[in-house]
Specification:
The protein is an alpha+beta fold. The chain contains three helices and four strands. The protein has a four-stranded antiparallel beta sheet with strand order 1-2-3-4, with no helix packed on it. A hairpin with an 8-residue loop joins strand 3 and strand 4. The model has no long low-confidence stretch (mean pLDDT about 80).
Length: about 130
């Protein structure tokens, strides 16, 4: 950091913080010429780097499995047990922690049966939920 190596800069910052450094107008403070870093006008950048060309591929991102995170692809099978992780409809016992058995799958729908609670044996349909 510059304030560790340059005592003159440190003193300037302390004067600004204490309100001792004089203002020019509209709360602007003039930086002394000895502290200004010169700018080379020969190097002019006409464009920025396109971040889309440097983005990671989907295959790479999908291969990452950080600690505690499940795979990016959830594979369910018929008759597999699942547990709800959010409240969908408390009146029908579709609450966080409700255990279900998958019966069938449609493109945007899961047909399941409740296995615990007052509504045991009830067939329900869980729609696709966008995140």
């Amino acid at each position: 950091m510059r304030s560790l190596d340059d005592p003159q800069f440190t003193d300037f910052l302390l004067r600004v913080g204490n309100g001792v450094e004089p203002y020019i107008h509209d709360d602007h403070i003039r930086i002394p010429e000895c502290m200004v870093i010169p700018y080379d006008y020969d190097e002019i950048f006409d464009s920025a780097i396109n971040d889309a060309t440097h983005a990671y591929s989907d295959e790479f991102l999908n291969s990452l499995t950080p600690s505690g995170m499940p795979s990016h692809l959830l594979q369910l099978k018929t008759n597999c047990p699942i547990i709800l992780l959010r409240n969908l409809n408390p009146l029908v016992d579709l609450c966080n922690g409700t255990r279900l058995i998958c019966k069938s799958f449609k493109p945007n729908l899961i047909h399941a049966e409740i296995t615990t609670g007052h509504h045991r044996g009830t067939n329900i349909f869980i729609p696709r939920i966008p995140f």
